Structures are given as C-alpha cells and as structure tokens.
Request: fold
Amino acid sequence: MKTNIPYNTLSNSQITKFGSGGLDLVIGEGHAGCPKLYKAQYIDKTVPAPMAYPLSFGITMHEALYLLEKEDLTPEEALTKAWDPQLTQKDFAEALDDLRNVIERGGVLPNLHTISVEERLKKLLYVDEEYGEIYYQGILDWIGIGEEEDVLYFADYKTDRAPWSQADAQNWVQGKSYAWLLQDSEYLEQQLPGVERPVIVGLVELTKFYTLQVNYTLEEIEAWRAWAEATARKILREKDFAPKLNKGCNWCSIQNDCEAWLGLPEHGNTLLEKLNNTSLEERVDLIDEAKETKKKLDKLIKDTESEIYEKVAATGSQSIGKYEFNLESSLSTKVVDLPNLHDAMGDKFYELCGFTFTNLKKWAKDENATIDEYIAQIESNPRLKKNLKT
Ligand code: SF4
Reply:
C-alpha cells in the first residue's frame, strides 16, 4: 500500500521537511517545514531535494571530515576531493580553516577508535493499527569506542557558526534519535557483545569550536520516541498537505506552483493591516513573520523584474499585463541634457561640470576609453522603463 511515508520508513530530514514544532534538525533549514513540499518531494517525487547553500557547505564539510578520518588525508587533500564547485572561494577558505582547526585539536575525535563512518541504522518505531510497521532510519556520521569496554560513542559533525552550549546538546533532537537507533539494537550487540548495560555517548563535533559530550537518560530517549511516533501518525493521516511559508521558500523548486508563495502580496497586506491595528503586545509576535514576508517579497520583486528585463533586452519592447516595457538610457538626464542644465544652473554649472568631468575622465582612463566611448558604454546598460498602456 502506498502511504505518505515511503517504504513506511521515516527519517530526520523527512520530519524537518514536513515540519514539526521546535525542530531544527538540519543546518540552514528553519523550524517550520512545509507539507506541500514534503508531498512533492517524498510522495509525488516530482522534485529533487533542493540544496540550500548552508546545507551544501555542511555536506562538503562532512565529506571532507569523512575523508580525513577514512583515508588519512591532509585537510587540503580532503577538501579538494570533497569540493562542491558551486561554493565560493570564500567558502573554501572557511572550510579549510575549520578542517585545520579540527586537526589542531588532535584530530576529528582524539583518543577514540573508529568502528564505522556514515553508518545507516534502521529500527522499528511502532506498529500502526492502519498502516502496519513503521520504521525510523538515520545515518550516523561516525561511531567508535574508547578505553572503556561498555561505552559506544557516536558523533555528528556540525559546521555551525555559533558555538553550542551543553544545554543545546542535551536538547538536540537529532542526537536523541541516534541514541534511540543504537539503543537495544543488533548493531550495538555486535559491537559490544555480552555487555549488560552499554552506555551510549553522543559527541557534537563543532568543527569551528570544540566537541561536546552528551548522555541521554532512558526517559529522554523514550520521550523522543513517543514524539517521533506522534509525528509519524500525523504524517500518515495528512490529507491537505497545505503550503507553509518558511525560511527555505527562497530555494524552493516548486515556488512558482505554490499558492502561498504566489499569494505573498495578499499575505503582506493582511500583515500590514494587523500591524497597523493591534496592540504592541500582539505586534511583537508578528515581527518575525513580517520580516520573513518582507524578505520573500523583495526576492519575488527582484526575480520578476529581472525576468522582464531579460525579455525586453532579448526581444525589444514588450507588452505585459497592463504595461508596456522598454529600455531607456540610464544616463539621459545627467549627460545628454547638459546644455539645458547649463541654462538652468548658471555659473554653478561649472562647479558641477568640473567634478563630473574629472570623474568621467578618471573612470574613462581606468577603462582605457575616451570620455565619449565611456559614456556610450554606460548608456548601453539601459534601465527598464514601465508605461501604462494607452
Ligand atoms: S514556496 Fe510554497 S511549497 Fe515551497 S516551501 Fe514555501 S510554502 Fe512550501
């Protein structure tokens, strides 16, 4: 039976994508996911997973750390091998600094021995009365052991730009999922055979800062499991898959097919009305939503204008909606109307002219051009002009 959870197996990224209160499981993805995008990605499979920039940086770092550990490469060699060319030279420098920082601290995880890296674990989460067995799976960056015979360590690499506190590590939802996957598992039994009460220790390897060590109590792990079951039940029974605006919308590959994204101006107007007519206490709650909406509106405006510009630049004047668009010189009033400007300004014109020509001369010289050639060059970058159709 086809269900809302493919292969009846849930993962941290699926929960993040669907959205569930208080989650921030993957760097760069906001707390709120989007059921509509979840459906497109995991059920209809009409879009590949979008790659937000921070995620791409994080994946490259994961790969480089994996290579450092597995193939014993230098930071430069590991990074070169793992490099995603879509990232910038600044990213490369930052990533290299992070890797060197890890090595200076004594390696990825000093004093511990690696058992496996990128280990995929899968475990029965619960049996649903309608959909049957539902599993949970996760890929653990690193698993290893130390001196103690009854302790198994797992680690997750984090490229966060701000350090974590011990409380952050204790509340780390992803960490609890890994501890639960290892707890009472065949994998644990294989690695620590015959150990009666094995201890599972999580390590948050913050590549820019330090490593935090964390233990979860049985109650904390069970609370995570109950929450994951409740989330799985909700996803399995979801019917609407309504869109939910969130930080990832800017990278969303189905935004042009999304009523919430396309309806942003209306959403903006509603927010504006609310902000105008509510008390300070209520407005405080609206600030984040208003900022996020403003950012999305700005992007939408910029993208739309670029699209129109490209059309007009490629095929000449265009009639779109109730407007006519064409390109006009962006310097026409400043340079072409000099005689008129002279008449209007009298002697002051020469002060302005001296300044303008000095600069023009300098800029033209920088470009190895005469002033006339330079002006022609600037005027060949015309700006978009919009007129209501007559
Ligand atoms: S653009 Fe629409 S579908 Fe995409 S994440 Fe945002 S709300 Fe969801």
Q: What stands out?
A: Residues 34, 36-37, 243-246, 248-249, 252, 254-255, 258, 260-261 surround iron/sulfur cluster (CB under 6 Å). The first helix runs from residue 12 to 18. The CA atoms of residues 288 and 298 lie 15 Å apart.
